[in-house]
Amino acid sequence: SSTSRGLGDVYKRQTIVYFAGGLVLLVALTLWGILSRYKKCGSDEVLVVYGKTGGKSSSKCYHGGAAFVWPIIQGYKIMSMKPMQIQCDLRGALSSQKINVDVPTVVTVAISEEPEVMQNAAIRLLGIAEADKEDLIKDVIWGQMRLVVADMTVEQLISDRDNFLGSCKENIDTELRKFGLTLLNINISCLLYTSPSPRDVE
Questions:
Q1: What sign for the dihedral angle of Cα 155, 108, 114, 73?
Q2: Which of 35, 153, 174, 196 is the most exposed place for a label (fewest CB within 10 A)?
Q3: How far are the Cα atoms of 46, 86, 101, 128 from residue 59, in angstroms, in the given order?
Q4: pLDDT value of residue 200
Q5: Distances from the Cα of 191 to the Cαs of 81, 95, 132, 157, in angstroms?
C-alpha cells in the first residue's frame, strides 16, 4: 500500500541520516585523535618522545619543535632548557699541601643544544625531580672541583685564579655533558682556607 511505501521511505531516509551522522562523528573523532597526539614545545624546551621510535635509541628529542606521538606504543615528556642557577659551595677540599679550602661557588647550567648531548639528558634526567637533579649536579661539580684543588697549592689558587677557573670549567663541563648538560657560567667569590698545623705540613 501507499502507506507502507511511505513508511519505508521515511525509514530509509532516517537510516541514511543516521549513517551520515555516524560517519561525520567518526571522522571528527579520528581528526581529534590525530590532532591531540601532535605535540609541540617552545624554543626553550625539549620534546622527548620515547617508546617505539623506529631508531637505535629508545627516545627522540625535538628542540623547539613538534612531533606526532603514536598512542599506546609511544609516550612523551617535555624538559625545560631554561638555565638553572645553583649555589654549591665546596667545603673542606684539600689542596696539594693538605690544607682545607672552602670555595663559595655559584654555577649556571642548562640542557645542551647539541643533539648528541641533549640525548643524554633524555636518558639520564627525564622524570627526575628538580631537587634530585640539583643534588646530582652538585655532586658532579664538587667532585671535579676537589680534583682541581688537589693539584694546586693555596698560593696558586689565590694568585692564578684564571687557571683555577679554567680547569674547573673544563672538568665540570666534560662531566656534565654525560648527563646532557652544559656549564654556562661558574662564579667563585673568594677562597677560604685553614692554616695547617706543623704535622699537616710535614
A1: positive
A2: 35
A3: 12, 28, 42, 16
A4: 37
A5: 31, 12, 27, 8
Judge whether residue 5 has pLDDT over 60. no
Q: Which amino acid is at 135?
A: D
Instruction: Give a three-class secondary structure readout of the chain.
Output: CHHHHHHHHHHHHHHHHHHHHHHHHHHHHHHHHHHHCEEECCCCEEEEEEECCCCCCCEEEEECCEEECCCCCEEEEEEECCCEEEECCEEEEECCCCCEEEECEEEEEEECCCHHHHHHHHHHCCCCCHHHHHHHHHHHHHHHHHHHHHCCCHHHHHHCHHHHHHHHHHHHHHHHHCCCEEEEEEEECCCEECCCCHHHHC
Residue indicated by cell numbers 657560567:
185
